[in-house]
Every structure is written in structure tokens, then in C-alpha cells.
Amino acid sequence: MNQEANIQPFTLIGRIDRSHGLDGEVKIIFEFDAPDILNELTVVYLRNERGDYFPARISNIRTEEKRNEISFFVQFEHIADRSAAEGLKNSGVYLETGFAENIIPRKDDEISLLHFDVYDINGEHIGVVMNIIDNAMQSILNISTSTGTILVPLVPHYVVEENIEKESVICQNLEELGGL
User: N or C terminus: fewer CB in 10 A for the chain?
Assistant: First the structure.
């Protein structure tokens, strides 16, 4: 297999929230907001306790709308009952990265801070944004420094300014995070 070292083979597309019913159906919370994409999914990947990815064939996808929220319920071929489904709770759901990039809509209008230089409010260079971790609560900047890495929540308490022209981010209060 000939892959670049920095390219991940799988992309997280959602998480299994809980089991639903007696037949092994699970509720999945997806990372994107385009339910019609689900029609193209027949196989996703899950991870075992060792961290290995394994294919999981989807036998049925069902949506349910309650209180202006759409829920997604998935039945995997290898899961036949509630106890097996319970074992998948909080597991990530993945697609092969190449396939995910083709079917998941991109947010082209969103500016990425990836590879921006990071400075403190005194102008001292701290590091470079190497990754942006998106989760339900807030985005987190993974900043590579000369002494390691630091995770900085993308909130006004820590991130004072994002300068697109200078490709820089100005931060404050980083000593509270204990990484410097």
C-alpha cells in the first residue's frame, strides 16, 4: 500500500449514540448535516478494542423526526440483538477517506486556520496549528510548539484574533492550559 504518511486512511463521520429496540438497531449521530448521503452508504468501518478498523455492512437505515430533530437508526448485518448493539455504544463510525471526501459536502466558505502561525498577545511565536479538532461543543486547535503540542479551545477566552491575511492566530491565557 502506497500512502502518504500524513493521510489518514479513515475519516470519522459519526458516533454510535445508543442501541434502539431489541433487534440490534443503533442510533448514530453524524458529523455532517446531509441525510441524503446516507443512501450511498452500504459499508462503514468501526474500530475494535485494539484500534483496528473493520468493515460493518449496513442492512437498513431509518430516519425518524421528533421535535424538529432527525434521528438516524442503522441496522448492521453482524449485529442481531440489543446486547451486541450495546457493545458498540460510543464507537466511532468511519469511511475510507477518499470516499468520504467525495460524498460529504465541503464547507468551502469556511476559512481553515490549518498551518497558521500562533502568537501570544505580546507577539511571541508559540507554534503552528497542525490540526483542528471539531466536536459538538467547540473546535480545538492542536498547536505544535517547540516543546510539544498544546490543545487550545477555539473560544474568545483563549483565541483573541484570527488574521486571515497574515495567516496567524493570536492567543492569550495559554498558561491556564498547562501545556507551555
Answer: N
Q: How many domains does the chain have?
A: 2
**Co-location of 15 and 64 in the same domain:** yes
Choose among 94, 100, 50, 54: nearest CA to 77: 54
| Per-residue pLDDT reduced to its tens digit, 128-175 | 998 888 876 788 999 988 888 899 999 999 999 999 888 999 999 999
